[in-house]
Amino acid sequence: MKLLLPVRDARRKSTRLAFLLVPLMLAFPSGPRSNDRVAIQRAVVGARVTWRTGAIVPRQYGQGRIPAWVTRRMLGAARIRCANHYVRPALTLCQKTLALEIQEDARGRFLVLGGALESIHFTDVTGGFRTRVTARTVESVRLGRREGAHVTITVERSTVDWSFVLVKVGRGWRISREDFVFAPGTGP
Fold first, then answer.
1. Does residue 2 lie within any of the structural domains?
2. pTM, entire model
3. 174 phi and psi, to 5 degrees?
4. What span, in angstroms and rounded, lies between the C-alpha atoms of 43 and 91?
5. Which of 2, 137, 138, 145 is most buried, most CB within 10 Å of its CB?
6. Cα–Cα distance between 134 and 126 in angstroms, integer?
7. How many beta carbons lie within 10 A of that of residue 181, not counting itself?
8. 3-state secondary structure of 118
9. What is the reported pLDDT for 86?
10. Has residue 1 been placed in a domain?
């Protein structure tokens, strides 16, 4: 006669759980391997550069109206650049935000004339398939505001603390979520 243990037996449950978790722990150690770590950092840098430079008006249109064909080309390029660094839901946010900036450029009231990721310091990279990254960036954007025939140019610089969640997609990494907080005394 076989003795059947109830499903609620804690020892049996913990043994089954151990058989499931140990292979996962071996497959995904506490942090990414060094080659993954570099790829993760490149993905984050690429994403931040995309945000800072994705809506920059071509130089020849920095003082005048932007033709519709240039706006369409900028929108298409922004969608592709976002897709190179993001997956949903962060992909949707990137594409919509850059599209709004480009449309404002086309209306001629607000122009993104330049942008830069001046520095980035990675404070933590942890995880396996889903990786969490924290970083501090210094970013700037050169804006033009049209007032009649005159364009007022300002440069806004900010220090931002970031938290990113990345997932492995094929051979690369993409951001699926990002949160930020401006450092005290900086920001818009």
1. no
2. 0.72
3. -135, 150
4. 13
5. 137
6. 9
7. 10
8. strand
9. 92
10. no
